Amino acid sequence: MAAEIVNPRSDSKTHGAASADSDISGTGSLTGTPDEPFDPVFALHRGGKMAIQATVPMRDKDDLSLAYTPGVAKVCSAIAENPELVNDYTWKSQVVAVVTDGTAVLGLGDIGPEASLPVMEGKAILFKQFGGVDAVPIALATTDADEIVETVVRLAPSFGGVNLEDISAPRCFEIERKLQERLDIPVFHDDQHGTAVVTLAALRNAAKLSGRTLGDLRGVISGAGAAGVAIAKFLLEAGIGDIAVADRKGIVSRDREDLTDVKRELAEITNKAGISGPLETALAGADVFIGVSGGTVPEPAVASMAPGAYVFAMANPTPEVHPDIAHKYAAVVATGRSDYPNQINNVLAFPGIFAGALQVRASRITEGMKIAAANALADVVGDELAADYVIPSPFDERVAPAVTAAVAAAARAEGVARR
User: Fold this and answer.
1) Residue range 316-337: average pLDDT?
2) Which of these is catalytic: 92, 123, 233, 370?
3) Of 199, 197, 203, 244, which Cα lies nearest the Cα of 407?
4) 68 an active-site residue?
5) In the chain, how long is the greatest CA-to-CA distance?
């Protein structure tokens, strides 16, 4: 299967779509009129962004007899006798299911499975473009955690890995855990772990730039959803000195009685300093701010951070701290946007992580594999390290091979590789 960008204005890949100059109801004309200007976004998406492509020839009856009946029966029989052969003689070990229920899509929230499909298609072509990994979008018409788990378990024989995408917290934690318990292929919720891996890579380089280690840092995370929880746990695993997490009601701390099970667990392992109250209280004297909330942090709170602080304001399209404000007080500034330096972009992580895991047919993605990915990503920057370059560009061709190799090696070292 090949994930391809489909251009509706091309004669070769219209996939039966309407002509490029036809009107999109309620959105304007693709060619543009005085009342309805041309919209390149809708033009690009018409007919979808992907297609299935054969990897073997189908020129004559001999090709047909090899690829399909009667030849295919030999392969089916061999797999029936030795199920492991499915990885060698089908696409299973090279393809990922991108699974969503459409409840937490980008900055759009709960928009449903159909509306999520453009994003899932986009995710699939990113897998192919940046990691050489084939991926299939699967949007499920259920938000019940157990139903999602059961559905994915039943689909799993067709895939070498599962990328959970845009599933709202706290259900995403339960779904990922249950799936990994029941499946012997990697299950990876990118909103959690992809974000955490890229954040750690950027933070390692920011600390290196100023001659510090992670252990020297006290951080504050704004947002206690999937990304915020995962980043906090991952940074602790990597050795950060201390980190506190804030939700809409303030710092997640042991003295709060309104915490969910996930946040209660978080309170037990974070916030060693015992800070309570609003986010602004925790930022006073903090070395790191990590924003994954979409809120706005007042400038005085940013000014109260420690000298030489790092501000990673990753909400899109509006960062929690505007870069112009952040640069007044911070030594390193990162966002989730592509039009500013130091973009914290998950595409730096998930294609290579899955490519490495699939390469060695890993049974799961471990913490060690994720830390290896973060270290490899940080190392790509190398001697070019600067305040406006602590993380490489997604278009840096060194990224995916470096992450792939590091993840594969870590999988072997941790005993989860099967070849």
Assistant:
1) 96
2) 123
3) 197
4) yes
5) 74
